[in-house]
Amino acid sequence: AQLVESGGGLAQPGGSLRLSCETSRFVFSVYPMSWFRQAPGLEREFVAGMRWNEDGITYYADSVKGRFTISRDNAKRTLYLQMNSLKPEDTARYFCAKSTSTKWQSGDPANYDSWGQGTQVTVSS
User: Fold this and answer.
1) What is each CA distance from 98 to 29, 40, 60, in whole angstroms?
2) Is 29 helix (H, G, I), strand (E, B) or coil?
3) Which pLDDT tens digit goes with each residue over 62-121?
4) Is 74 exposed, middle or buried (0-12, 13-18, 19+ CB in 10 A)?
5) What is the DSSP track for 45-112?
6) Residue 26 C-alpha from the chain's centroid
7) How far is CA 4 from each of CA 78, 89, 94, rounded to the nearest angstrom?
8) Average of pLDDT values for 1-23?
9) Fewest beta carbons less than 10 Å away: which of 18, 48, 89, 92?
10) Are 37 and 87 in contact (CB under 8 A)?
11) What is the average pLDDT across 50-65?
12) Does residue 54 have a pLDDT over 70?
């Protein structure tokens, strides 16, 4: 599997960014996908996840609930993360990841077997 993130950058507090994760070399449409982030000196943490099928069920970390929205376009093999009302504490490198199973498991990084290289998000005035 190959995953390539884009869309990161510098944003002001209260601003917005949209991350994209383009994928290839696996059947994107049948796997749950998630976004994680990692700030310097901290462990990688779950941000948001989405099941593969059309029920549209999503999962969010409490810290981003109501501000971030995960979505996917199975035809384009692309995962998105719309980030609104950004805060300085959202500053981190953001990664997309593919689940090891076609069934939703959890936001534990151990349940994901393929990762992108990440895209840096910095929120600062």
Assistant:
1) 11, 23, 16
2) helix
3) 999 999 999 999 899 999 999 999 999 999 999 999 999 999 988 999 999 999 999 999
4) middle
5) EEEEEE-SSTT--EEE-TTTTTTEEEEEETTTTEEEEEE-S--GGG-EEEEEEEESSSS---S-GGGE
6) 18
7) 9, 24, 11
8) 97
9) 89
10) no
11) 88
12) no
Specify the 3-state DSSP secondary structure of 30: helix
Q: Residue 61 corresponds to which tokens in the numbers above?
A: 């970390």
Nearest CA to 69 out of 88, 54, 86 is that of 86
Indicate whether 28 pLDDT > 70.
Answer: yes
Q: What is the CA radius of gyration of the chain?
A: 13
Q: For tokens 């959202």, name the residue.
A: 90
- In degrees, rounded to 5, the angle at the alpha carbon of residue 118 between the alpha carbons of residues 62 and 112 is 65
What tokens appear for 82 in the block? 């719309």
The share of the chain scoring above pLDDT 90, in percent, equals 86
Q: How far apart are CA 34 and CA 37, in angstroms?
A: 10
Nearest to 107 by CA among 95, 117, 116, 119: 95
Say whether pLDDT at 55 is over 80: no
